[in-house]
Each structure stands twice: as C-alpha cells, then as structure tokens.
Amino acid sequence: MTTNPDRIIRVGHSPDPDDAFMFYGLASGKVKLEGIQIEHMLEDIQSLNVRAMRAELEVTAISAHAFPAVAQHYWVMRTGASMGEGYGPVIISRKYRSLDELKGKLVGTPGPLTTATLLFRTFTDGIRHVDMPFDAIMDAVDKGEVDAGLLIHEGQITYQSLGYNKILDFGEFWDTESKGLPLPLGLDVVRKDLGMDLAVKLSRGLKESIAYGYKHQDEAIPYAMQWGRGINYQLGEKFVKMYVSDLTIDMGEKGLAGLKLLFEKAAARGVVQGVPAIELV
Fold first, then answer.
1. Catalytic positions, please?
2. Which of 30, 96, 206, 235 has its CA 20 to 30 A from that of 276?
C-alpha cells in the first residue's frame, strides 16, 4: 500500500530576525501541517517582490508596496504582516536635520518596491532618491555618496547609537497622518490557485508557528538571531517584538484599515495604480 506524498509548498521569507522568529515553529518541525511539506526559500525582500510578480511561490513575504502589482495572483494572509505601531522606516543623515534641508539633495532608498520607498515617494517633495541594497545605505551616507538614507530593518534601532541625525520617522509620521492606525510594511500572501481551503490551512499554520515562537522564546529568539546582522541579543529581541506583534498574529480590521489607507494615499500621489481589493485569508 502506497501513501500519497506530501504536497510541497514553497514559502519565501526574508533572512531577518522577525521573519525567522515567525517561521521557527514550521522551520524546526515543531509545528506540522498534515499532508504538507514546507520548503523555505530565504531571499531579500526585493527579490521576493520580483518573484511574486511572476507568481512563483505558493506563499511569500512581500512588501506592502508590492501587493497592488500582485493582487490578481495572491490573497493577503491575516497572519504574518509586519506592522509599525508608532515606528517604521527612518530618514537619517550626518549633515542635515530636516526635510527642508534635503530639498534637491539625494537620499539612498532600499529598493523600488519596498514600502519604505513608497512612503518616501508619497510623503516627500523635491528630494531625489536612488535605490540601493538596504544594508549599503549607512555606508553610502558615511562616504558622502548620498546626503541622507532611508533605513529599514535593524538600522531603525541602531542609528541613534551611531550618531546619525533623525530627519523623519515614518512610523511616527503615519501615526499622526492615519490617526492611530498601524503602518503596514510587510505582508505574507498566499497564491489564489491553491484554493481557499488550503490557503486558510497555511495561514493557520503560520499563526501556530508564531504562537510556538512566543511560547518557546528560549529556542526561537536564538534561532532568529542567526540573521541579526551585527546586533546583540537584547536589540534582536526588541526588533523581533516590534515587528512580531498581536497584529502579526492577526491584522484584523485595524490592520486592514491601515493597509487600505496606505494604498489610498499612495494612489492619490500616483505611486500605485489604484487601491486593490483586499480579502484576508
């Protein structure tokens, strides 16, 4: 008697502490999905955005910015979103201290489909930008190749100790602009051709994985810190808990409202083409 082989589901996520923490339960085999074998694909978020444009992976992390371009292929999972709650990408500089001073200057931004770049294009005027790998931005500022940089990931919590001037924290800005809604930065999406039943099963599996990580932080945080890029354990734990929150477990109506408002603001500035229909799975 032969048994049916497990269905292989490729899951794309970034090699970052917060994503690693979320997927620890599944990656370690402590959380299992019956009949499914998860194949983890670790790539930087810009590469995952491009792959999502081609609908390559069954489940993938993407920048919120990328969703309008892939909405025909993917549903948004209610689990797995990275939401800023009063914090987010930060514009920093060595020389300058205000957006007015940056008029006509050049800012290093972390990729055309990142949500950080969407925020920059939507809410600043008269400032030039150039895309580069996110982890090259501080160095480019220090070398004078750009006048300022837009920081994501760990840079958001290390720049002050490194002596940079904060020009704008988009998380703080959005908190005021949106009247307290969370700032959607990253999403997890599931391909529509899998069907709703399997999509829901995968979303619930990720929810269980996050719950396992929180229940077993002594395992999950050291695992996540393998991708900490030079930050210590204390900062790594802080970063994980910033971006793996209750809204990550389930973005709910509040997260959905933040996502719709972000697309409305960006569409009004022509940064995205309209507001896509969003159905949470």
1. 153
2. 206
